[in-house]
Amino acid sequence: MTTTDFFTTGEDVLRAAIAAELDRTRRRSLALTDSVDDADLTRQHSPLMSPLVWDLAHIGNQEELWLVRDVGGLVPLRSDIDELYDAFQHARADRPALPLLSPAEARGYVRGVREKTLDVLDRTPLRGRRLVADGFAFGMIVQHEQQHDETMLATHQLRTGEPVLHAPAPPPSILPPTAREVLIPGGPFTMGTDSDPWALDNERPAHTVLVDSFYLDAAPVTNAAYAEFIAEGGYDRREWWTEAGWAHRQQAELRAPLFWERDSDGTWWRRRFGVTEPVPAEEPVVHVCLHEAEAYARWAGRRLPTEAEWEKAARHDPVTGRSRRYPWGDEAPTEHHANLGQRHLSPAPVGAYPQGTTPAGVHQLVGDVWEWTSSTFTAHPGFAAFPYREYSEVFLDGGYQVLRGGSFGTDTSMARASFRNWDHPIRRQIFAGFRCARDAARAERS
Ligand code: AVJ
Ligand code: FE
Q1: Whose CA is nearest to atom 3 of ligand 1?
Q2: Are residues 215 and 254 in the same domain?
Q3: Candidates 142, 145, 147: which one to mutate for ligand 1, based on the most atoms within 8 Å of Cβ?
Q4: Residues 138 and 180 in one domain
């Protein structure tokens, strides 16, 4: 069983499931931090990232604030460190200079918090108060930790040195899409959710959105396709870039996706978690910013999908008119549906997950790479911050761009197709790629 099945089966089953999720998540956090030495944990691998030891203690601090103090009503373990681990108090670049807990102290702290959390879980009714109904606060903290785990994975990718993370290669392409693009007929669909117990505030409420007919790429843009864009002068032709995109292209001297390098034969190589290898042609391109995605789309005579288009393609069931939880239906993700959860250390080639396609034939919407959309991060109509403004609300209308679908480093607890991610348009260290869309011709509209 997986978490989604528990909500209907009773409180003890849900409680056991939450304990398992907390444990599974903590194993990932520890694997990400036990794999490097103390110097590596406290060092800043990029000004864009916190030292890994900050993420670890921040994970524990967030758990303490919500589960130990708020839900449990217990006294603080360490109220003196709240300020150090408040993401709004210190920019990532400034965190290495703070008097942070040492690696040993941070490990001891998260262990101590977790012991209290498990006591709280044992004695908290998972109903009544909205914060705890269906175990929401626990689910929120699992997702918070998993989000930082993906952030730590991005820090690992920025780190130089010998490989320390290991995982089997992703599955091969077994059934690539038969068509390049899929027509998504026009009409209303339900965006967002009211009923998903662990959905976060920004996914709520459910509301009807009218989406015109459009074509969506059946798969994310591959490295081979992206290399063609580069070969045709993609980075040198002003006309394919937006004004902001070109300014950034110039200023940041963009020439290729982050971590790509071309040798004297013209072969592209990429560095991935300490391993340098030829860029795999059929994998979705990753580590491009919004501006690069938009320039590619313009070159290809296409555009990025809006967030609503993306979600409609991923969730709308034209037979029942309902929005489903995942592209393949409501069944919780397995290793056959999508490349999620750091099971592999790269995107899988297009065609690796035929069981994860939508009924209309769109592949790999969830997993592999986050997908840039053309939408900025705004509130769904009727949005209300819950349980705190700093998760979503303070970022709304703040110049952030929405990404959808999750990457190979995203946990299954965030794989639901209503989940929304956001980042600055210029960011490339996240595991982001994209797919293209285009308007349907008038005659093709239903
Ligand atoms: C939703 C991924 C944009 O990492 O900034 C972590 C998640 N919020 N701690 C981020 C988050 C608070 C957030 N993103
Ligand atoms: Fe956080």
Answers
A1: 422
A2: yes
A3: 147
A4: no
